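Lab notes, practical 5.
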Amino acid sequence: MKTEETENKVSEPFTEYGKYSYADYLTWQMDEMVEIIKGKVFKSAAAAPRRIHQKVSLIISNKIFNFLENKSCEVYTAPFDVRLPIKSKKNEDIFTVVQPDICVVCDQSKLDEAGCIGAPDLIIEILSPGSNRKELKYKYDVYEESGVKEYWVIHPNEQTLLVYTLTNGKYLASRFYTPGDIVPSVCIEGFILKLDDVFTD
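Output from the prediction step:
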């Protein structure tokens, strides 16, 4: 007879045990969003993101989408798999698969039917309660190592935006942008974001 502890290990065999690849990821059938960072699995809450998260994501992605019309870069929103290989692009050799809230990909060769393989040019993450450590520590590290040129971190409740720009392989942080500021993108030439348009409440 299975104990409660055994049943939990069977139903959730991930978080603390083993190292998992994109090949493993493709076999899972789960209701909630799952990401793999350096072989470790991170599961998001089963509940949908809060309204403010979705509102901010929609406003920003729409502005980027409209700006990129007739340009070579493309914008995608979660759920959208971004695979970040280190040495090999084989499924079993990829140990980081993330779903950024918003990403922009300018190199069309990185796009396939499964999503994106390789570093997007711009990634935007919108913080949610409980996700701050994942976004600010684990994702920061893999985005920097993978060569994501620009990484924006938005805190919707505090109405702030922090931009990390890749310089000589390391991220340099901007000051905190707040309502009233206009934020330019380094990698999407000509694109600016007015934070008054984002934080409307």
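Observations recorded by the TA: The first strand starts at residue 34 and ends at 37. DSSP finds five helices and 14 strands in the chain.
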